[in-house]
Amino acid sequence: MSAKLLSAHSTVFKCWQTRQRGLWRCLSTGSASLGSGSLKGRSCLTLKDFSSDEIKSLLWASSDLKHRIKLEKQYLPILQGKSMAMIFEKRSTRTRMSTETGFALLGGHPCFLKPQDIHLGVNESCRDTARVLSRQCDIILARVPNQSTLEELDREASVPIINGMSDLYHPIQILADFLTLQEHYGSLQGLTVSWIGDGTNILHSFMMAAAKLGVHLKIAKPKGYEPEMSLIQEAQRLSREHGTQFLLTDDPMEAAHGSNVLVTDNWLGNEEERKKRLKDFEGYQITMKTASVAKPDWTFLHCLPRKMEEVDDEVFYSSRSLVFPESENRKWTIMGLIVALLTDYSPQIPMPKI
After folding, report:
1. How confident is the model over 39-62, as a mean pLDDT?
2. Is 303 in the active site?
3. Least confident of 4-13, 229-238, 272-281, 293-302
């Protein structure tokens, strides 16, 4: 009797599964898939863990969602019934707004957890938090001071973890940057990006992805503000593997020479460091003089918030500045990433030239 009941229950479940797959196909099936290597169930702690084709597939999904939702005004409740824990130990405008609104736009329920709510590693261990949240939600985004916290969350959680920014990497910012450049130039292959500033988490993420997309990377930083040595070595290896250029210098004009894209980040630091950093970074403000040695089609990126000492108003508010489209694309790329990690999404538009 129990065997018959089990068989009947199994038949009902299979029918339900078939129905759900049919509904899903109505929502997401397109003319092509993201490829044979599904990202479903993966975490995104660093783009170092993603291949060239995988990063391209994330940009494709992001571009597709932007096209369908923003331009075609489609309603795509792809994440209906799913929830996301958003752990923020550091404040943010773009990461919070893009993730919260993007997840909700796709039908999901984002849950924002600030330090006063969750006490990560204080009142409750990171290990226990990961296991509890895995039973409450489908995915976790964490913006934390230490990369090691993300790695522990990933080890202990049974759901995907997304790095919303750590001391070492900021992968979701770089996805937005590359989507912005792809939209502007029509292709990423052969572009030269010049980083002028501090050896930050954003630079580290550029270093782990640029060569994989055929992008040359030139870095100018003052002495003592170098990127992590292990990441320099990895970037050099990736550059050799993919046939791109990788330059490290302490001369901003050398880095800017012949570049398509000028990029900087917040290098001013806190008030205690301000005086020393202003001296150390003398000559590192991006101005029209910097741009004068770049290519005629040069553009400018900054992850924001920005300080005048990093880039002057003439460049920042010029027609060459892509900072506000870049900021908007934080939303579409986090949506593309989440959809790729949680579903078997298939874009409808042809794959952009990347």
Report:
1. 98
2. yes
3. 4-13
User: HSE-up of 282 (CA within 13 Å, CB side)?
Assistant: 4
Q: How does pLDDT run across 311-350, given as a tens digit for each residue? A: 999 999 999 999 999 999 999 999 999 999 999 999 999 9
Nearest Cα neighbor of 181 from 322, 65, 61 is 322
Residues in the chain: 354
Which backbone phi and psi does 193 adopt, to 5 degrees?
-105, 130
- Band (271; pLDDT cuts 50, 70, 90): confident
Residue 14 has pLDDT above 50, yes or no: no
Q: Which pair of structure tokens corresponds to residue 43?
A: 């975490």
Residue with tokens 């060459």: 320
**Rounded to an integer, what distance in angstroms lies between the CA atom of residue 250 and that of residue 226?**
9
300: which 2 tokens? 């400018």
Q: What's the topology of domain 52-170+330-342? A: Rossmann fold (3.40.50)
Cβ neighbour number for residue 262 with a 10 Å cutoff: 25
Q: Which of 44, 126, 137, 303 is catalytic?
A: 303
Architecture of the domain delimited by 173-327? 3-Layer(aba) Sandwich (3.40)
Q: Taking the chain, what is the end-to-end CA distance rounded to the nearest angstrom?
A: 59
Per DSSP (E only), the strands in 166-291 are 192-196, 216-220, 246-249, 261-264
